[in-house]
Amino acid sequence: MAGRGGRGLALLEALKKQKEASPGDEATVTPPQVGVTLARGRASLLQSLAAGARSLTTESDAPSQTASQTSTSTTPTVGLGRASLLSLARGRALAQNEPAPGSTSPKLSITEGLASLSVEERQERPPVIRKGEAGKLIKASANFIRLSCEPDKGYFEYEVKFKPECDSRSMCFRLLNSCRDSYGGIKNFDGHVLYLPIRLPDPVTELNAVHPVDGSTVKIQIIYKKTKRMGECAHFYNILFNKIFKVLNFIQMGRQHYDPAASSKIPQHRLEIWPGYVTAIDEYEGGIMLNINASHRVLRQMTCYDAIQDALQRNRENWQSVVIRDLVGACVLTRYNNRLYRVDDVDFNTNPQATFDDRRGGKTSFVEYYRTQYDLKIKDLRQPMLISKERKRTGPRHGEKEDEKLICLVPEFCYMTGLTDSMRQDFKIMKDIATYTKISPNQRQLALRKFIRSVKENAEASKVLSDWGLRLEDATVSFEARVVPNEEIFFGNKTIKVNAQADWSRDACSSNVLTAVCQILKTLLYLVVAVQVF
């Protein structure tokens, strides 16, 4: 059947002429090449992808071209849609990512690149110091004490490995302590990371320890990691000074440490004042320093039992409510162990005759406990007990779980701390307290020198510092300060110099201004809220 004309008729006539020219080659006849027109838009993108796919196919079949040259294959024409476009794009990406036969794999090149990298320690830059020029130079001193380290010591970090592995932290401590002669004995160890004040001669130190349970040999590897700067060890140095305060028999209350042996009493007000210090170590412009300041704690020579008796006399009907109001939330001090507790509740149904489970698994009363442990005798056997909740975090880093333990306290042995509102409003009491707590700069300097002297004269406290190669300076930091000149105030009719207190209120009231500013009439806008009248 003949076509109706046009492009189809032309194709049919061309096929007939080709068949007549080569009648024996029908099996190998290929379709005629039709002139390709330039496509635009999406068609152009499809053509470019198709051409790239044919070139990739030709390159991949290059080794087997001998077989393809003998026989001619006819490639079927497939329509190109969106799905075909995506498949061609994926094929091109996979072909480009395939490595050449003699090339290096990307993973190997990345590994070689990482192996060539080197980690260098950060170089310290000198601090930027800016000093003024105005004013008069004077000598001054600050409440800072410089800490220095011996040249051959520092804070060296090591990694500890056990073979076979040891999961028990306490067993790791026992195994490492058995080899303390090999690393000096002075250490800071958490079960995995070890800090020493000295650097071991070898980067990897291998030790042999005997397991205390089965007698087997455990190999210990101490691997050097890095040397920490003094500025990076501020937290550890603060822990060292907390240990020094314990050696000096100071009592810690919050972040302050107080000396009960140097207390001052005010008998007319039944008060007692403990002197102490508040300290913090950090890195400053001049290096690592101890920031220290004098502090005081006011204690009352009044027990919680006295407060209960006072409430009973004032309001016999509602005395329990008064006791709860006065004691709950207060901080009390037990002098038999010099510990500070917070009162969370008052148990009126329990008295010192009640029993509890002791460590031996038996039953004992509070009366017997205080008599055997502290040689204290409870006078009133019917007084209520104070309840304090002690919260302690447990876990690998003391942050996973919080355990709560209830502690029963006898009011007779608990001393009140702090001042009441009525005491704060009493001018005479506050004046007598100020004679001990408000000290002059010279007295403050004497208190700081006393602390330095007490640390250096105590052999055990000095050893805590010397074990880690630290040394405390003999005096506080001295430096040059500047007293700037008094500022000048310009008025309309004169110029005055402000005094050292920077007070010029009298001149502001009696002198003319430079320019008078007229007062603008102000209007106050407000909303009237409807109030229901009963």
Automatic annotation (TrEMBL):
Its main location: cytoplasm. Residues 54-79 are annotated as: Disordered. GO terms for biological process: piRNA processing. GO terms for cellular component: cytoplasm. One of its GO terms (molecular function) is RNA binding. Residues 303-418 form the PAZ domain. The keyword Plastid does not apply. Gene3D superfamilies: paz domain (2.170.260.10). PROSITE patterns: PAZ. PANTHER family: EUKARYOTIC TRANSLATION INITIATION FACTOR 2C. Belongs to the argonaute family. Piwi subfamily. This is PAZ domain-containing protein. It comes from Megalurothrips usitatus. The lineage of its organism: Eukaryota, Metazoa, Ecdysozoa, Arthropoda, Hexapoda.
